[in-house]
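#dry-run=false #mode=assembly
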Amino acid sequence: MEWDEVIRKGIREVDQVEIYEEKSRIVVVDVEKGEIKRAEASFSSGVGIRVLKDKQLGFAYGNTGAVERVLEKAIRGCKANREDPNLPGFTPESKPSSAEDLFDHRLDEIEPDEVFDLVGAMVEASRISDKVYSISASMEIASTQITVVNSEGLDLTEKRTTLSAGCYVSSRDGDKASTGSEIGEGRSLDSVDPEFIGRTAGERAIASLNSVQAETGEYPMVILPRASPKFLGFLVGSAASSDNLQHGRSFLTGKLGTAIGRYEISLVDDGLLAGRLGSRSFDDEGTPTRRTYVVRGGIFESAIYDRYTAHKEGRESTGNARRSYSSIPSVERNNVVLLADRLSGDDVMDVRRGILLISTGDSPNLANGEFSGLISEGFLIENGDVARGLRGTNFCLSLLDFLKNVEVVGKEVRDIAGVISPPIRVGKVRIAGS
Amino acid sequence: MHFDKMRKLASLGADLGAEFVEMRYERAQGVTVLAEDEVVRVLSYGESEGFGIRAFFKGAWGFSSTQRLDLLEESLRNAVKLAKLSSKMKKDVFEMRGCYLVGHSKLYAKIDLEDVSMEEKAKLVLEAQRAGRKLDRIKSITTRYSDEKVHKEVVNNFGVETSLDTSRVSFMTRSYASEGGITERAMETATGTGGYEIVLEGDPLGKAEEASRRAIDLLSARSAPSGKFKAILDPKLGGVFIHEAFGHASEADLVLAGMSLLEGKVGQKIGAELVQVIDDPTVDGLFGSYSFDDEGMPARRKVIVEGGVLKGFMHNLESSSRMNCESTGNGRTCSYDAPPIVRMSNTFIDRGDSSLDEMLSEMRRGIYALGSLYGYTNPAKGQFMFKAEEGWLVEKAELKQRLREVALSGDILSMLMNVELVGKDLSFQGGYCGKDGQTVPVSIGSPHVLVREVVFGGMG
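#status=ok
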């Protein structure tokens, strides 16, 4: 059934209909103990339908191709639902923004055996020493087509590709054991350097073999871009989410217009950057993406919005709706860019004694902004140099004054999961170890 | 039912040269209700179905998934081709072993999920929200109900032909309390396999009130101190502890990949004598329960640690073939479009004989940590971490000061050695566990446990 036919059928019973479709092809290659172990090639698709009648929302989804059934279930759900006076209508017809270089036909057409070569290069580069005990690696290529069509005249489609690679190395030396890892992601074949990823993972695994538990105390901490999504990404995507602010769930509630960082720092949500992971020409409700200053000159200037939360405050969506076909849209970040040129220097590592944070599996506490976590990968810094690896060491800081405590930022900017930032040094981080 | 077609294709795969072929079909449907501050944001129905096909050739795998029956043969051919291609560079070759098994299992639900209307599910969620919002200082409540009915079929060329019909429910409510610029949150859940009775018997209104009460109590909490402390873990946290600190490291696929420090440690003492660790998908009604795993192998109870000694690992068909033992029925997937890997089910520390009072009396100065937010581990490095929702600073056996969210971490090889007392109050909690991008329902369980030394990371 064509989409307009589904819509026509739907509006016989409801006021508005919206169809969101996701179609993707993925190729995955996995490595175990340095050898290719598994290859996958799959196609999938799914449809989510939202309907609206008298301020009541209905939603259903499915991947079985039975679109009419999904529509029926959505209408059924709409009738079972209650009125929500805050519901806006679906997005009117609009011209999308133009986010460039989101699609690489080479990735779209890539075959698994071509991926073997890329993965092989990553694995070989990680074998830097005979103390490398085992190498796991993975590369995934996805080519996705998103379509948003609705009864209000909106009809948008965009194709996007992503390449994600990761290398995980375990190292052993006598009874010492450690690990090192690195990841890379991008929208084109050239955006990821497999050899860099492999070599970096291997080097970290070896360098951290001789690891220590840091002494409990207060240290300056250098946060590498790899960990930035947990800091800057969380600040914009979760703490500055209008949904969290409107419900008072975020520690930034009531802080609009106040200083949350040094005046040299701005933080931008940007959906338009060419070739970036967080870019798209329109968000998942069909709103054109844009640039939003979340923090400008240290001041918390704006939240990010989807249509629902924007409507509540009588303003426009900032193009931050994100969803999969199996969920309704919610507020999420696009790219996050740290602008702090005036704090940029060559001396980001220049401390007598400090902590280098490469990654953590933890997340901040949304309610109070406290961020305590285990240093999954990290090193001591001694007299400006990377020294021994860390184990069993936790950090703790508050995201409320995180941007106030930035001392200096480095020059080498990386894009990790759409968070585009240099290394950041913050002072006065609580470190718990021995 | 797709057994006939899948059986034929499994033998076609074998004819094409694959040493092992597995065809899985899965159909799932479910309802989700999400309400925020007494407004229903989501009331949804969803359904999905598809096939996952695995082919094995000389130590390597090909995998392909499809939603379409008419593309099933093409997907199978693709999987066989990918397995052969992947095996070209493989030096570490092994054989897959399996067994003949036919079985069908259907879970009994007291109240079938389809017999309860969407209106009723939404009404229950809103009632819970009202119960939780009654309390003073509650700023916001989020409540999510979701249910799922799943039908699974597995066929392989060794003669496995099993089907499983199951259903599960999860209810989660989180309250945010606020006063004087401070906001705190707390969460309660009710989960299980079965029907709508799980949420009814799980006291959703009481759960919402409890989450609110705890969030309010936390307003007077201080940041946890940082450093090494003696600790009591409550059953929720003890469960996360055993899942993260130990469970993952004893998954045989990680051992084989050279990514677990427990490699070569079977038969060795790795914990205190009073520690027993069990993984058991056959416990009735728990969130991680099942009767056949996603490779069609029967679920069974496994003792992983007995008297502090590592007895064995958890296996799927591949790891058991490579390590020359039987599958323990731990081959699980999150969906038809992902391959089965080694996963836990309901993992717990078995009950001991101590009481909480005895544990407190062992504490001159320490932390009693309660409730769990999440946890994770790096079994190759031997580190793990988990986060408690709240805690108490204990001094001379007395609860002195309430503490907010605390981070605990430790070392896999020494943590179980540090267990000093195990309580008699075993209880379980359901949740989700992620590995290799796959999320599956599990339960974790534990009594109260007293641990000699844990690293706490806090601001205080």
